[in-house]
Amino acid sequence: MKMTSAHLGSIMDRVKRADNEWKEQLPPDRYQVLRLKGTERAFTGKLLHNDEKGVYVCAGCGVELFRSDDKYDSGSGWPSFFSPISEDRVEERKDDSHGTERTEIVCARCGGHLGHVFDDGPKPTGRRYCVNSLSLDFDKMSK
Ligand code: FE
Description:
binds fe (iii) ion
């Protein structure tokens, strides 16, 4: 295939890996959440009370997902944001598991499970992106 400018791609080009590759790349607890849609126990996540300025990136593929400015304390026991960095970073999927109707959120780039989004968030969006700490890494803003 001839390389043209159309093949340069963008930051949001999909990252696809086979299951065994994810298993090799990720520590077991992150693999459980990101690839098997697990949930860390409430109030146990490392980033729950992190209030430093910076950016939260996907622990699977590294793409920037959330800003510290959009993080708030929802009381749920999981890091909560009222908005992603941009709409194209987070994909929503209907989730009927556990006998309830919820909206799952995944990284739009690698498909990694992040958590769920609810409509009981604060202004201005009214949304609560409820995210596992294990699905995220934190990049502290350099001064
Ligand atoms: Fe990702």
